[in-house]
Amino acid sequence: MTNILLVCSAGMSTSLLVTKMQNSAKERGLDVKIWAVAEAEAKNNWTDADVLLLGPQVRFLEPKMKELTEGKIPVSVIDMVAYGSMNGAKVLDTALALLG
Questions:
Q1: pLDDT tens digits, residue range 60-82?
Q2: Among candidates 56, 44, 48, which has minimal Cα distance to 4?
């Protein structure tokens, strides 16, 4: 199973994106767990993740999240266009590409 954590400012704005990513994963027959949390909860969730994606609105947190995760998992910012259009398939592709 692949575990994908999304971090945003309040944990709510990414809930629709999470659903779209889950639907895309299901269509592809992928075994993934995708969830979103607010920045304040990232420290309690990142150890369960294989990759951490930041909402574009919190891109300034990238250095902080990379420090938090100590380089143990990939950390990246979600593409603004993919986020804005709620393109779950593209964001899922991004997460999977980061994992190799």
A1: 999 999 999 999 999 999 999 99
A2: 48
Q: pTM for the full model?
A: 0.95
Domain extent, residue 32, equals: 2-99
Q: Is 8 a catalytic residue?
A: yes
Looking at the 3D structure of the chain, how many domains does it have?
Answer: 1
Q: Which residues in the chain come in under a pLDDT of 50?
A: none
Q: Look up tokens 């593209």; give the residue.
A: 90
Pick the catalytic residue: 5, 8, 49, 75?
Answer: 8
Which residues neighbour 39 within 8 Å (Cβ) at sequence distance 6 or greater?
7, 8, 9, 58, 61
